[in-house]
Amino acid sequence: MTDAELLLKLRNPDTHHYGFNLLVRAYQHRVYGMVRKMIIDHDDSHDVTQEVFIKIHKSIGSFREDSQLFTWIYRIATNECLTFLSKKKRRFFLPIEDVSKELASIIDNGEAITGDEIQKKLQKAILTLPDKQRLVFNMKYFEDLTYDEMEAITGTSVGALKASYHHAVKKIEEYLGRD
Amino acid sequence: MRKLEDIPKADIFKVPDGYFDSLPGIIQSRVAKKEKDWAFTFQYLVKYAIPLLAISIGAIWYFYNGSTPSDTQALLASISATDLTEYIQESDLSTEDLLESIDYSQINSDSLEFYDSNIPLSEIDLKEFGTDLETEL
Predict the structure, then answer these.
(1) Nearest 5°: CA angle at A82, between A81 and A84?
(2) A137-169 pLDDT per residue, tens
(3) Would an 8 Å CB–CB cutoff place A134 in contact with chain B?
């Protein structure tokens, strides 16, 4: 089903709930995957993913189709992730490093984590980046989004995104080089 | 230094079995609950909160505009002198209390009918003035 067909179903009161169910099923893997890479913990990621789709349901009437549906959904997801991480730091009065350490410990000890040591070290290296830079890195490296798509999602210029990504790669490689 | 491109890409985050089968249902339930909660809240507002607010605003406006000093004076003016005299006589106010409450600056001496310096002393009932004055004279 195309985005246009999906939107038609969503905007028809008779098929609205069915259309929303189809939207969730179409995008849940990508939304959860993106959220999980930012939030790390599964339970927190589950909460944030739900909030993303509830916000989508609430705002679908105002989607003006001036961007792709996926871009709009992804923008909501990134905002929810950044808001969650910001609240987490404020709630516990934690400096940024402590939150990163907490998330890193989930990677080391969490049951819902798989992969070899180098994969885990890479994830811990990514956690040392500031949240917005981490978001840019994940979108480029894991999601393989184009810079134009990332610009549409974040509202940041392509040039700034490229600079952010390359700087992130450098920092990660420095981290990986340490023992 | 280890290069990023040398590390194979992998998703290390495990997802519980059946998670994506149940997630749409969980989200639909929350959406349905929100819609129901909103319908209940709206119904409550229309039925109770808005009328109560309107009555409260009306009452505040009425009592604020209804009670003014000029209405109190108008109320007193509507009471006859006879009724006022009867009230004063039957109250437990002493003569001294009454005299203390008079604002003498507002009194026109011409209106004091009882004051007549030409009344002979012999015609004055001294008992009205108490035993002290009788002693003086």
Answers:
(1) 65
(2) 999 999 999 999 999 999 999 999 999 999 999
(3) no
Rounded to the nearest angstrom, the minimum Cα separation between B43 and chain A is 20
Cβ of A113 and B12 within 8 Å?
yes
Please give the DSSP secondary-structure letter assigned to residue B91. S
Q: Does A26 touch chain B (CB under 8 A)?
A: no
Closest in A53, A114, A173 to B2, CB measured:
A173
- B23-68 pLDDT, tens digit per residue, is 999 999 999 887 777 777 777 777 777 788 888 888 888 887 765 5
Within 10 Å of residue A51's Cβ, how many Cβ atoms? 19
In one-letter notation, the amino acid at residue A135 is L
d(CA A86, CA A76): 15
Q: Which of A24, A37, A141 sits opposite B24 (nearest CB)?
A: A24
CA distance A42 to B65: 62
Largest distance between two CA atoms of chain A: 60
ipTM confidence: 0.86
Q: Assess contact for A174 and B4: CB atoms under 8 A.
A: no
Q: Which two tokens stand for residue A120?
A: 């885990």
